[in-house]
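Why does this matter for the project? Reviewers at the last site visit asked to see concrete outputs rather than summary tables. In response, this paragraph embeds two records directly. Each consists of the residue sequence and, immediately after it, the corresponding structure tokens. Nothing has been edited or filtered.
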Amino acid sequence: MGQELRNQLMKIHQLFPNLIKEVRGKGLFNAVELNSKVLFPVSAYDICLKLKERGVLAKPTHDTIIRLTPPLSIR
């Protein structure tokens, strides 16, 4: 499941290569590092708030990293 999430994040990275610096993770713990030079004045926190409005839970780390740790709920 974590690899599938990273694959989807990599597709987004390919759409916005100037904005997204790196996608990384292990298991369900994943992160997207943003390019601070392109991002300013918006921060990772601002993006996490927008993601929350869309039902995605994410946490900012520093100003440029968004951590994604989806809940493990399997049916």
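We now turn to the second protein, recorded in exactly the same manner.
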Amino acid sequence: MEKINLIREVRELKTHLSYSKNIGFFFGAGTSCALKIPNVEQLTTDIETELKDESKANFTAIKEDLKTIITDRNANIEDILNHIRRIREITCEVKTKSYQGITGESAKTLDIEICKIIYQIIAAKEAVADISQTKKFFAWLSMLNRDFSKEIFTTNYDLIIEKSLEASQIPYFDGFVGSFEPFFWQESIDQFVSKNDLTQNWIRLWKILLPIRWT
């Protein structure tokens, strides 16, 4: 296997970043894992540990059912939540209808309980996470002079990026509008932001999965 020339890679990255072009950054699970925030596999295990009684039994039953659908890996919490929500849909969330012994009412209860546990686990880890390095990165990104919007993409559930931006008082936009019941504004993605627009220098934060505050 060819060894990576770190100095060469850094120089090439510096060259790319020096151009006045539209460059986006993708933050994957490694960003959160470096701050001791669990990835989806660990989160799945932690959630199963926290569940009790009927909820735990239903969780286990869904995992077993998914083994017939997902054969190349273990089902994670994203797979399980998707399956639970399919059950909620086909049973209309009522206790008189069920799938594999799980009623619609129980599926709804399990969904809500899992989301609460996810929030508790992630929030506890975030509270002690050292975000100094992410703050430095976004401070640097904010100072860059670009003709295009600066975009961040992430699949992470946590709010590390949001906290880092807000701690540095850097304006950003995540596509949601409102404060009582925020809604996603599709036009914010499709519309080109001109140089004279007040929000042109705002960082665009696109979360491919909903963050925990929307669960």
